[in-house]
Amino acid sequence: MKGHVARKRFGQNFLVDQQVIADIIEQLAVQRGETVVEIGPGLAALTDPLLRRLDHLHVVEIDRDIVARLARSHSPAHLTVHEGDALAFDFGQLASTAGGSLRIVGNLPYNISTPLLFHLADFGSCVRDMHFMLQREVVERMVATPGKGDVGRLSVMLQYRFIIDRLLEVPPEAFSPAPKVHSALVRLIPRPLEELNVEDEVRFSALVSAAFKQRRKMLRNSLRGLLDEERLAALGVAPTARAEELSVDTYVRLSNSLE
Predict the structure, then answer these.
(1) I need a surface site. Which of 3, 204, 233, 252 has the fewest CB within 10 A?
(2) Fold observed for domain 9-195
(3) pLDDT given for residue 12 in this prediction
(4) Domain range annotation of the chain
(5) Residues 247, 153, 138: CA angle, nearest 5 degrees
């Protein structure tokens, strides 16, 4: 797979550091018989060591040249290549076809990481866990706790659905070409369905979006039209609080109070 030029339009930064690759494989601890899906296999840095530990691997890749190279260098008996955009891929259909929960892994392109995480959140019920290499700043937002400046819509929406752990920090020089930012490996484990007690997912998303749209505003202003000051106070939330001060459970409670 060497010789492929990274394409800016696909946000490609290929992982090349062998120690980092070994550390990621150790964190994944895949077992034969598991259904593993790799998003954006690139130069097969993770693909090949995964295949040595699995009976079969699925990959989702948008770059036609990489798809062709993978098809030439790997047997379809061991590797299934799904050509297309991961943002539009139906992971639920793959899970039902494969007959089990998915383990998803990938060195995600930074330019689509946030929308892709939201897309994958919809498939939590058919996923066992997900391990992703992401921009460090994105991971910091994913794990941020109330009161921290990097708390945002991404923090609340993902923490509602997943248990999130930051695992490894990876320097720019571990990639080719080297990005201008540090990266980090993060693990997401879907929360049990009984813990997902939002009554209306669309309403919950709209509430969280409204709260963080103008994040420096007090909630009595940012949530105007959804919850007035009296309703906020009755629900135990200070109308003068700001979006980043509230816990995920509080957002769930506010959402469930809406008619």
Answers:
(1) 3
(2) Rossmann fold (3.40.50)
(3) 61
(4) 9-195, 201-257
(5) 105
